[in-house]
Design goal:
The structure holds two protein chains of two kinds. Chain A is an alpha+beta fold. Chain A contains two helices and three strands; from the N terminus they run βααββ. Helices cover 49% and strands 19% of the residues of chain A. In chain A, strands 1-3-2 form a three-stranded mixed β-sheet, with no helix packed on it. In chain A, a hairpin with a 5-residue loop joins strand 2 and strand 3. The longest helix of chain A is centred in the middle third of the chain and has 24 residues. Chain A is elongated, with a radius of gyration of 19 Å. Chain B has ten helices and 13 strands. In chain B, strands 1-2-3-5-4 form a five-stranded mixed barrel. Chain B is rod-shaped. The termini of chain B are far apart. The model of chain B has no long low-confidence stretch (mean pLDDT 87). Classes of the chains: A alpha+beta, B alpha/beta. Chains A and B meet through helix 1, helix 2 and strand 2 of A and helix 4, strand 7, helix 5 and helix 9 of B. Strand 2 of chain A pairs parallel with strand 7 of chain B.
């Protein structure tokens, strides 16, 4: 098990976000979705688009070093710039 | 000061060079060659100085050249070669200004006999790995489109880490780069690379693994041609990119990895998307999302209008049908009405209390009763 002070992000991978957005758009573009379901999809899509854009714009690359501790665990530490 | 090297000055009064100026200019000329060269020759007159530097002469049947190997390189080389050893040296031409001596500044020495052994070992490893299917195209995995966690197995002090970080920061700053450090050449490189690759397999949430180093001579890539490193790379559980940084020579890790990149920078480009492309995709999805909803509501309105029309028509039809039924029932009721029988000349005798008198016994002599005819009642009396 990795010990990480700054472990993996809890937000889903951006690829999953984009895949879900593509799915939402496809459903909306099809004619067989009910209007109230369409509105719900639209709201979800807007929220996801906003979050994705914010993630892409605000992100800052993180570089960490993988170290193995004496007990065999691995630890990630930020690499000094 | 840079003086032009010209050999046509006829008079000492035009311009006079000092020896130092001449040596400095010749040195610049000689040392301007950017790349080191491999030179083959026989080593003689080897001297190891207390400073740790090695000096020797490299010769063949026609010529000879003095060579120096500075301590930092000599230490890596192990023991100095014995006089008479046939070697390859990796060196840059240089000028020892104080003595005006042309020499080679050597960074590596490999006995030609060892080179032969290395080639044999390379062929052996290649054949074994090929037999085991490690080069098979069928086992190549695709690098994910939006890798967010990238492992980098390389030297913590090398240029590769800087190149990968620079490219990734520019293209995909949402990423996280996890550096598993290992020596990439010299003693211990193989075991450190194997250990780092096995460490990579224990990192959760990893998307892709880059293994590599910056440039280097063919000899510097030896660790990447070993069976142990190749097998450790093949065992990495995420897609791998080999970037050994040598465009001409292909290392065996290049063949084992899922993807080969010419340089660490190219590996980073293969590993992560370009943020600008993804932002364009997000913009496109925004437009499609808005258009999708707009189209859907327009469709809804038109469906609603059509439904209202159909509903209206349906209600009308039901009402019509009910009206017809009522008329029919009314006609039937009318046909069954006793009043219609009276219309044909029949009369119904009824008591004063309104009871229908059906039998003789119902009539009491001298009592009055009523006869119901088509247009009303007639009073009568029993005799």
């Amino acid at each position: 098990m990795a010990k990480t002070g700054t472990g993996p992000s809890l937000t889903p991978p951006i690829g999953d976000e984009l895949a879900r957005l593509e799915e939402i758009v496809r459903k909306l573009e099809a004619d067989d979705v009910e209007l109230d379901a369409a509105l719900a999809l639209f709201e979800e899509g807007v929220a996801r688009l906003r979050a994705a854009r914010e993630r892409l714009v605000a992100a800052e690359l993180k570089v960490q070093v993988v170290l193995e501790e004496a007990d065999g665990d691995i630890r990630l530490t930020d690499l000094d710039a | 000061m840079t003086l032009p090297l010209t050999f046509s000055t006829p008079s000492p009064t035009d311009h006079v060079w000092s020896v130092g100026q001449l040596s400095a200019s010749v040195r610049r000329l000689i040392e301007s060659h950017p790349m080191p060269l491999w030179v083959r020759g026989e080593v003689v007159q080897v001297k190891v100085w207390s400073s740790g530097h090695w000096y020797f002469t490299l010769r063949d049947k026609k010529s000879q050249v003095k060579c120096c190997m500075w301590k930092m390189y000599a230490e890596r080389g192990g023991r100095p070669p014995a006089d008479g050893t046939e070697v390859f040296v990796l060196a840059k031409p240089a000028l020892y200004e104080e003595k005006g001596e042309f020499q080679l500044s050597v960074t590596r020495i490999i006995p030609t006999s060892a080179m032969g052994r290395q080639q044999q070992e390379l062929e052996r490893v290649k054949s074994v790995l090929q037999k085991d299917g490690l080069f098979d195209l069928s086992r190549k995995r695709q690098v994910p489109s939006y890798a967010s966690t990238v492992a980098l197995v390389t030297s913590p002090d090398g240029a590769a880490i800087h190149d990968v970080v620079t490219v990734t920061r520019k293209r995909w700053p949402c990423a996280r780069i996890l550096v598993a450090g290992a020596r990439v050449q010299g003693e211990g490189a193989v075991s450190e690379l194997v250990r780092a690759l096995s460490l990579v397999n224990r990192i959760p949430g990893l998307d892709v693994c880059i293994v590599g180093r910056g440039g280097g001579g063919r000899e510097d890539l030896a660790a990447f041609n070993t069976e142990a490193v190749c097998r450790a790379l093949a065992a990495v559980r995420v897609p791998t990119i080999s970037a050994v940084g040598h465009e001409i020579d292909i290392s065996l890790t290049d063949l084992v990895a899922d993807v080969r990149a010419a340089t660490p920078s190219a590996a980073a480009e293969l590993a992560v998307s370009d943020r600008r492309d993804v932002l364009r995709l997000v913009d496109d999805l925004s437009v499609r999302l808005a258009a999708g909803l707009s189209g859907r509501t327009r469709l809804g309105r038109s469906r609603l209008a059509r439904t209202a029309d159909r509903l209206h028509a349906g209600v009308e039809a039901v009402l019509d049908s009910r009206r017809n039924l009522t008329d029919r029932l009314a006609a039937q009721l009318d046909a069954l009405s006793p009043l219609r029988v009276l219309g044909r000349g029949y009369a119904v005798p009824m008591s004063e209390a309104g009871r229908v008198l059906k039998r003789r016994a119902d009539f009491v002599p001298s009592e009055s009763f009523r006869l119901r005819v088509a247009d009303g009642d007639v009073r009568a009396r029993v005799e």
